[in-house]
């Protein structure tokens, strides 16, 4: 069963979540004695600090996107190299048999320039196989076993980079979900602790009560006073 995508429990940006957690942690440590009857302990505050540190240590979405983009560039470079070698080989074939002949069509190279990565890989395997089987026919026009080995190697490199691209894209999505999950855990615990702080001082200290209010403004909007979320 496919795991349900994580949805952020908070509206603020992730950097704002970290700074808010650090700010509230200071107030919580200051008032820990008064909050003891609300199940707020030094150990629980240490755990909040650890949650914050673990969240900060996770790769950001931007990092994942950049890794995926780098992998995509590498795949495109491998694709371009393999297609260039194929076109050079087919140019030599064309000197003997034009592209309307059965001999030329046997290579199956038509349409590979715009083929999917998977279809291109299989198509180039065929070009190499047919080229080796008919090498004697085109050797006089410059085709060599080395040309076919080069195409085979470039095709293998293409397959490798396609896999690396898929892994990078999958990893970026997974890292985003992991960061969202960690952020939700941090935020939920922060809200629970701040609720304890508000409850402790709601009738005795307006200033301290205010210290525990979380302003959860949407990350995409300018920061303006927002309705308290906790």
TrEMBL record:
Name of the molecule in the record: Uncharacterized protein
Organism from which the protein derives: Hymenobacter chitinivorans DSM 11115
